[in-house]
Amino acid sequence: MVGPGSGTALGRLLAHRWPEAAATAGALRPELDAVLTGGAASPSLVRQLAPMLGLHTADLFVVAGLDLPQDLVPASGTRPWDVGTVLERAAKVAPQSLRRLREFVRSLPEHPPAWPPVGPRYRYGLGPGEMMLWLLRNRNIGPYDPKLLYLIGDGPMVSAFTMAKLGPGRTRLTPQYVTSFATVLGIPDDDLAAVAGVAAATDPRLHRNHVELARLAWDARRLTGEQLSEVLDLARRLR
């Protein structure tokens, strides 16, 4: 068993969630043991492991350091809108209106995102800070948006430039960052802490609707720019 601060990100997550993973591993046990000792995971293992851990398969691909397959990529190139824009506006509506907004998002027809994906992949390698930013991208959320982290997850009050330096590791990934990322992403903070090798913050002041907002972000991750504009119009009317 690896320690909480050692090994790969996926290995640390497995070590943290080992009782659940081991209980349902079956024939996967040799591959899981290999990951626990620093080995790489195959795409097939990630697809089987994600539901066992209760995590989105696309997120686990990022944690494993693997490129997303075509069926799991989020939308990209939707400027001037992205899902972060939707969340900022949705954070200002009442809970019942937020549920209506999410229902509308889920009713929209899906259009396959562009392939291959737009933009660079893992520019600085996949250290803990870069991984947090790519998990935001996995929801078509602009990765350098400290306002969103602060608004929903009690993140640090920093500039976009400071947040961008998480990627190359020139900004330190603190417990406050870990908890705020976990809240926006809808990933349990202890799971994300294990992935990052950094403890989560204690007693954060989270947005009252943070659970529903995280679900909305996931539901909206593959919407086109035109669809995002429709969602933003509805959110404006619901305020």
Could you please describe the fold and organization of this structure?
The protein contains 14 helices and no strands. The chain is mostly helical. The protein has two domains: 9-72, no CATH class; 83-238, no CATH class. The protein is globular and about 55 Å long.
Question: Summary?
Answer:
By secondary structure, the protein is an all-alpha fold. The protein is built from 14 helices and no strands. The radius of gyration is 18 Å and the shape is globular.
List keywords for this structure.
14 helices; 0% strand; 239 residues; 2 domains; mainly alpha; disordered N terminus
The domain tally reads 2
The secondary-structure element order is: HHHHHHHHHHHHHH
**Helix percentage:** 40-55%
Proportion of β residues? under 5%
Number of helices: 14
Distance between the termini: 50 Å
Mean pLDDT across the residues is 92
Shape: globular
Instruction: Determine the oligomeric state from the structure.
Output: single chain
pLDDT < 50 runs, ≥5 residues: 1-5
Secondary-structure blueprint:
Blueprint: H1 9-16, H2 18-25, H3 29-36, H4 43-53, H5 57-63, H6 83-90, H7 95-107, H8 128-137, H9 146-153, H10 160-164, H11 175-185, H12 189-196, H13 210-219, H14 225-238
